[in-house]
Design brief:
heterotrimer; A alpha+beta; B mainly alpha; C mainly alpha; A: alpha+beta; five-stranded mixed β-sheet; elongated; B: two-stranded antiparallel sheet
């Protein structure tokens, strides 16, 4: 007959959880098992939550726009929300591992465990909690997303053209009415290979491509969109922090895809206007700070 | 475990199924294959409508032409002319779809005959000939189109549909060839479920061809 | 049927081979056929269509690839069954036995062989070969990325390597469990004598073998520059390489379709008496669900690739904007395939994992109905999420919300998988042998992979992370750290049954720890690269990403070392490891109740199933999964 049944033999070397043998011992070990798992769960959850709150801004770059900061906040919130679930899974796995160290190298299997085929309470609670979490995360994301759909009546138009293998920005002649009544004026169309943006001015990027699909990726602005040939992709943001950022290409576009990155900057309005004025003379603007990346 | 009898028309892997078991397996397999093919068909038709709706740079029914060579396109030359691509005449499309349907119905008739023990091999031969004719006409249709593959996306999708129908009709010919030959040799005297499989496949190809034809004719 | 006392089927001595040319067909004749017909069609192409200025080269390559695929399969005998059927010749009993490998010894592994166990083993070898190729390409990528401005590889070569690494791994992971184990183990698990269509089974392995050389050929005709996703319109620039790539996919799709149909029909029609759906092991369900999902997804791949070939060879413009085409058509059709496809990759290994967790916790699978429902839910939802790969493409901004919804919903059934995994482990009498090591690693890796997927499903976050190394790290955590590790658990678990020997666990544990640690170093660093904004698929990078890339590459070398040690353990154990008993794990499912090596028709007696295979810890009657023979004698989960 099989050795899978424990006929009254109590093995002292590992926990016997056969209910027929020692019910009292069984309940005590059960409680011990639950307690141990909860301790590990608690520790891991705290660790995960702290990591989410404090490590996220260290790992993610400094962002120059609300969309960028929204991405950072999302990472932080989602990490904190996921921490208890991840911690529970890991805690059970870790505690099972700890409990099994006596049996790892046996040549024959140990006695069977309790035939727990299911637990309506555990399954139901899991389903409910995971659904609530998903609803929360979805609401968070949809709220942020719809707040990003707001269209400013007056935005600085920047036409972004991707081609193999460089980005060109052109600022058409325009007058932008800023919140507060001031205006920002670009008298003549200006072409540039570097991107400068004035602070606190809503920007609308009109992105297209001359040849294949590129990915317009101004990293610290928290927005991104493909440059597709024959169509115009619209991206909007309002940069609200001064500073340098990088524009990269996020969609593989052939041979020199890796080198399609340029420095860019969010600058004060006066700096921007002065820079634009240089370009109105008909020259394509580049900046001494622009690098094309190493070859 | 049933012994091998003359009723077994296929043997596989050393163990013997009864004809009923083989029938069930092979019909189920064909149904699954058709399900996958149906996904392909749906996506094909969706691609038609998607490209038509996007009409990128007016390229659905319009093709770039240069004065020198009206049939070539693909040039970024701003001086090229856009010319409207002629629609394909529906006649050949309808003919080919009709022939596939007739072939399928003929196989159905043969199946009925086989069930009753009447002659079925000649009918299968006729359906094979009809399917071959459909293949021939489909190949011929490529020659008589008023456009070529380089003439924009309507032309591209139309010719893709034609190629898809052609490929499916070739599979019909292969199946009917086998079924007709086996019928001719009397292999379906007792167990004729494979004629039903041929009928299902041929009718499916006919239906999918009709759907493609309707898409191409009504939504040019 | 025969019993041990009588003659065994595999000992049948077959009659003379005179006049039977197909008894001489093997891998060698396949190669000859493929190279021969490929060459002939190349010549034909050179002398007819090559002068076409726009499409000539691509048409010649297309003809050559067509010749290779058809010629190889003609040469090895894939089409023999169809041709015989058309001609009205049916197999004799001797032919059937020969086709099943009787009387051929080891040479049957080089042939078209209908025995599902042989096919499963052939798949296993192919999987090793593909992972070896893909892994070597991966090491070349990581070597290039050791330093920011490395010139180890030119950008052209690097892009080509990235593309083929990706596609090789995709093929390998799709077949890594469904090939070896859904073929070898699953029919035995349901008490069947073979699969429903043994000849289609043999066809599926050789067709997928014939798909690999065109993929490797891309390196010699210019290389694929566009990643494994070969987005149009970039891929229209790649000419002959893209034609070869498309032929690989078209051929591969044929194989997967046939294999999926075979799996489904086998489970639907060939279960042993008494094996109701609720007594089927989780792995059988997983094979069915994965197979069905593949049947849905592969036609989309076929559509994209045939359109690509037609674009290259006849000038149609499905994807070229100047003539009305759109890259969005490519992308939509691609991801309609691409997202379900990652679940085709994931679901069978998860099924294998549940078997491992159950056996090595000595407990039933927790919430059996829920894990089945979860796998079905994942498969069903996966059909509706594809455009989360396209949030930043601009194709349909209004659909971002709905796709965010469906994608986040997938985390619910995926979470159920975790519930059932930890529920099975909970208070288990855990026996941590090598398969279970990989089981634990799966849980850790897939938590990280799954959670980071949720970040990506959030559109504002995806606006930052799309196209950067965060995505790369996410899918390596789920596909390599998750699916492949679960597949490795399955391999270690079923190794004794498939090879007849015990896997060297001491070496295996060394390999395990090397893999586990190397993996974390490699891909956690890549998450960090993604946080900082490094794009993916770049041959050189901005020096600000240098430290994490260096660490990731070092991790990759450690990871590779671990896989090599595991491969060494596998090969040496297979050749000369200790002979395995029939049921070394005292497991309950049917594959463990038969002999090792498994007889030709799997069981020597008739099988009747009486319970599910998860009766651990229950009363004597419920412990028994199946009874054997006409007397109904019970065999318990011991070794013979």
């Amino acid at each position: 007959m099989s050795s899978n049944h424990n006929h009254g033999i109590h093995h002292a070397t590992y926990e016997s959880i056969d209910e027929e043998v020692a019910p009292g011992l069984h309940k005590q070990l059960h409680r011990q098992y639950v307690r141990g798992t909860i301790y590990v769960w608690f520790l891991l959850t705290v660790g995960g939550v702290l990591a989410g709150i404090y490590l996220t801004p260290i790992f993610m770059p400094h962002m120059n726009s609300p969309e960028g900061r929204a991405a950072v906040e999302t990472v932080r919130v989602f990490t904190v929300a996921a921490a208890p679930v991840a911690a529970l899974v890991c805690a059970v796995a870790i505690y099972s591992l700890i409990n099994s160290r006596h049996r790892s190298h046996l040549d024959t299997p140990p006695v069977d465990g309790p035939p727990l085929r299911g637990n309506a309470l555990a399954s139901g609670a899991w389903l409910v909690v995971s659904t609530l979490l998903v609803v929360f995360l979805l609401t968070w994301g949809l709220a942020e997303w719809s707040s990003q759909q707001v269209v400013h009546a007056d935005a600085l138009q920047v036409n972004v053209t991707g081609q193999q293998w460089l980005w060109t920005y052109s600022y058409p002649a325009q007058t932008v009415i800023l919140p507060g009544g001031k205006t920002l004026s670009i008298p003549k169309a200006v072409d540039a290979t570097t991107l400068n943006l004035p602070i606190d001015v809503p920007v609308q990027f009109n992105v297209t491509s001359e040849d294949v699909t590129h990915g317009f990726y101004p990293t610290q602005l928290g927005i991104q969109g493909d440059a597709n040939p024959g169509v115009n992709d619209v991206l909007r943001t309002t940069p609200d922090r001064l500073g340098k950022f990088v524009v990269r290409c996020s969609q593989i576009c052939g041979l020199y895809h890796a080198y399609m990155y340029t420095q860019a900057a969010v600058v004060p309005d006066s700096t921007f206007t002065a820079w634009i004025a240089q370009g109105s003379a008909g020259q394509v603007l580049t900046s001494a700070k622009t690098t094309r990346g190493a070859r | 475990m049933s012994a091998t009898t003359e009723h077994d028309v296929t043997h596989e892997g050393g163990h013997h199924d009864t004809p009923e078991q083989r029938d069930r397996k092979e019909l189920s397999a064909l149904v699954l294959f058709i399900a996958g093919d149906a996904i392909f068909l749906i996506l094909e038709i969706l691609a038609w409508f998607y490209l038509r709706a996007l009409d990128t740079q007016n390229g659905w029914r319009f093709s770039e032409a240069t004065p020198a060579n009206p049939a070539t396109s693909g040039s970024n030359n701003p001086h090229t002319i856009l010319h409207e691509v002629a629609k394909a005449a529906p006649g050949w499309t309808i003919l080919i779809a009709a022939l596939s349907l007739i072939a399928g119905l003929a196989v159905w008739w043969a199946e009925g005959n086989a069930r009753k023990g009447a002659a079925h091999a000649p009918i299968l031969g006729v359906s094979l000939i009809i399917a071959l004719a459909a293949v021939g006409f489909q190949i011929y249709q490529f020659q008589v189109l008023p456009f070529t593959t380089v003439d924009g996306t309507y032309a591209s999708m139309f010719e893709f549909f034609m190629g898809s129908v052609l490929a499916h009709l070739v599979l019909v010919v292969v199946v009917l060839l086998g079924v007709w030959n086996r019928a001719r040799k009397g292999m379906y005297a007792q167990v004729w479920y494979q004629i039903r499989l041929a009928r299902v496949w041929t009718l499916w190809v006919a239906i999918s061809g009709i759907l493609l034809a309707m898409t191409a004719i009504f939504f040019a | 049927m025969t019993t041990t006392a009588e003659h065994r089927l595999e000992d049948t001595v077959l009659g003379s081979t005179a006049g039977r040319f197909y008894r001489h067909q093997n891998f060698g004749t396949g190669l000859a056929g493929g190279i021969g017909l490929g060459f002939l069609l190349w010549l034909l192409g050179e002398y007819t269509v090559n002068n076409n200025p726009n499409f000539g080269t691509d048409m010649v390559v297309a003809l050559t690839m067509l010749g290779w695929v058809i010629g190889f399969n003609l040469g090895i005998g894939t089409f023999n069954a169809v041709l015989h059927w058309i001609l009205g010749h049916d197999q004799t009993k001797e032919d059937e036995l020969y086709a099943a490998g009787v009387g051929q010894g080891k040479s049957r592994y080089w042939k078209y062989c209908t025995d599902h166990k042989v096919v499963g083993t052939q798949y296993l070898i192919l999987v090793f070969v593909l992972f070896f190729i893909g892994g070597t390409l991966a090491m070349m990528i990581r070597t290039q990325l050791l330093t920011p401005n490395s010139t180890f590889l030119s950008p052209q070569t690097y892009n080509a390597i990235v593309s083929i690494h990706g596609m090789t791994m995709i093929i390998a992971t799709i077949i890594m469990v469904s090939g070896p184990f859904a073929n070898f183990i699953m029919p035995i698990m349901i008490g069947a004598k073979d699969m429903a269509f043994p000849r289609l089974n043999a066809m599926s392995i050789w067709v997928v073998v014939s798909a690999v050389p065109p993929l490797m050929a891309t390196f010699f005709v210019g290389g694929v520059n566009a990643g494994w996703t070969t987005y149009a319109p970039l891929s229209t620039q790649d000419g002959p390489a893209m034609v070869c790539f498309a032929f690989t996919i078209i051929t591969f799709v044929a194989s997967v379709t046939v294999a999926g149909i075979n799996t489904l029909i086998t489970v639907l029609t060939m279960r042993a008496p008494g094996m109701t759906f609720s007594r089927m092991p989780v792995f059988v369900w997983a094979s069915v669900i994965g197979g069905a999902l593949g049947l849905y997804a592969m036609p989309a791949f076929l559509l994209d690739m045939t359109m690509m070939v037609v674009d290259h060879t006849t000038g149609t413009s499905f994807f070229v904007a100047a003539q009305g085409g759109s890259g969005w058509l490519w992308e939509n059709v691609f991801w309609i395939m691409g997202h379900p496809e990652v679940y085709v990759i994931l679901i069978p290994p998860v099924g294998a994992l549940m078997e491992v967790l159950s056996t090595f916790s000595r407990k039933p699978v927790f919430a059996y109905k829920m894990i089945i429902g979860a796998m079905i839910g994942i498969a069903g939802l996966s059909i509706m999420v594809w455009a989360h790969h396209m949030f930043t493409t601009g194709w349909a901004p209004d659909l971002a919300g709905p796709f965010m919804l469906t994608t986040e919903l997938i985390s619910i059934p995926t979470g159920i998988v975790f519930l059932c995994a930890i529920g099975t482990m909970w208070r288990g009498s855990n026996w941590v042998r090598l398969p279970m090591y990989f089981g634990f690693l799966f849980v850790w890796n897939f938590i990280i992979g799954g959670v980071t997927g949720i970040y990506l499903s959030d559109v504002p976050a995806d606006d930052y992370f799309h196209g950067n190394m965060f995505v790369t790290a996410h899918f390596h955590y789920t596909l390599l750290g998750g699916a492949m590790i679960a597949g490795t658990a399955g391999l270690c678990y079923w190794f004794p049954k498939v090879t007849g020997r015990m896997l060297d666990e001491k070496t295996g544990r060394w390999a395990f720890w090397t893999i586990a640690i190397g993996f974390q170093i490699t891909y956690l660093s890549q998450f960090y690269e993604g946080f900082k904004g490094m794009p993916r698929r770049v041959a050189n990078y901005d020096p600000i990403f240098a430290p994490e890339n260096l660490i990731s590459s070092i991790g990759a070398y450690i990871l590779m070392a671990g896989w090599i040690v595991l491969l060494y353990a596998i090969v040496s154990s297979w050749r000369s490891g200790p002979i395995a008993p029939a049921n070394p794990w005292s497991a309950k499912s049917l594959e463990w109740q038969t002999l090792t090596p498994v007889p030709l028709e799997n069981f020597l007696e008739d099988v009747t199933v009486v319970n599910d295979p998860y009766g651990y810890g229950q009363s004597a009657e419920l412990q028994v999964h199946a009874v054997f023979g006409s007397t109904g004698a019970a065999h318990h989960g011991e070794g013979h």
